[in-house]
Q: What sequence folds into this?
């Protein structure tokens, strides 16, 4: 009697770091490792519907794999192999996946939470200090061989004594709050739920509108979903303190970029530090042209150590799915979903 065939694991995207590649290859003892031939969504849908990916029970996907599949939505889920039970997403944010649709079809989703915290928070600290101090324009002028520009740049502001308002006090928000306390900032936060005293670590819980009205710096650290899209727009800018500084390392679409440009132009917002954008890789021209905007091209987790740790974490989700029938870090929306 022939032995039963191994289950299959589908790799969407690349595993880029050697220590993680070794761990991925080690999964070949448990499953057949496969990759799609498709290079765009139309081709991938066709390939999946053809049966070429039948037998796949788990998927390892990267943020960049959206260039192949597009969003994991109803159309995509219906085209995926019927036996697929797990999608392991290599990233903290997973807005590229319609979790509700996946839940309806019995597909379990995981993300990579804590491995991203330090690097993303460090990026947030950099953007906070850079935006407060107004470092963008001097950096630009130096590259034009103008030491401080044609005119003396405006004075910046010290972080000491300022109030940091964290919108979304998850792992990244807490990490960033802890680091910015070392610069003399006090911390308040708004969350879906008030944290325990231990997790809050001295940060004050306030309601959403109070955070907007009383923070000197507002850091956006919340996931993107239907409830948080454009949670910061014109009405919210009107509530903020004049001269507020805003930092976003979460997802671009939690803030209305067009409204942000207007708020910068009329002086409501003094400066911003951005690592994410509403329509990446496109950036609103009103942000690119504004000297008060410090920009990074989505570099939050862009370190060797963090990306290697993320890849290893995501592989561990796949391994646990195969060996134990559950995921190491299921997304919160599925915490009560039966295996």
A:
């Amino acid at each position: 009697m022939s032995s039963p065939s191994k289950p299959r694991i589908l790799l969407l995207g690349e595993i880029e770091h050697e220590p993680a590649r070794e761990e991925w290859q080690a999964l070949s003892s448990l499953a057949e490792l496969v990759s799609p031939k498709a290079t765009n969504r139309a081709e991938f849908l066709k390939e999946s519907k053809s049966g070429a990916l039948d037998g796949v029970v788990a998927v390892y996907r990267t943020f960049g794999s959206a260039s192949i599949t597009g969003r994991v939505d109803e159309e995509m889920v219906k085209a995926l192999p019927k036996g697929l039970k797990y999608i392991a997403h290599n990233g903290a944010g997973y807005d590229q996946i319609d979790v509700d649709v996946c839940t309806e079809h019995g597909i379990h989703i995981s993300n990579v939470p804590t491995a991203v915290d330090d690097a993303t928070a460090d990026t947030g600290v950099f953007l906070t200090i850079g935006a407060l101090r107004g470092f963008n324009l001097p950096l630009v002028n130096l590259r034009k061989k103008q030491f401080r520009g044609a005119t003396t740049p405006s004075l910046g502001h010290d972080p000491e004594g300022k109030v940091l308002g964290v919108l979304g006090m998850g792992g990244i928000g807490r990490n960033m709050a802890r680091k910015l306390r070392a610069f003399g900032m006090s911390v308040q936060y708004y969350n879906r739920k008030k944290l325990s005293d231990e997790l809050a670590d001295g940060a004050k819980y306030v309601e959403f509108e109070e955070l907007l009205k009383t923070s000197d710096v507002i850091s956006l650290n919340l996931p993107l979903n239907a409830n948080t899209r454009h949670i910061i727009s014109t009405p919210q800018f009107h509530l903020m303190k004049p001269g507020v500084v805003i930092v976003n390392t979460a997802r671009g679409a939690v803030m209305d970029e067009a409204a942000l440009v207007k708020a910068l132009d009329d002086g409501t917002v003094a400066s911003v530090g951005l690592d994410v954008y509403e329509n990446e890789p496109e950036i609103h021209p009103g942000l690119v042209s504004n000297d008060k905007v410090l920009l990074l091209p989505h570099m939050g987790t862009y370190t060797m150590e963090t990306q290697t740790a993320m890849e290893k974490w995501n592989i561990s989700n796949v391994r646990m799915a195969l060996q134990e029938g559950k995921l190491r870090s299921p997304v919160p929306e599925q915490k009560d979903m039966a295996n």
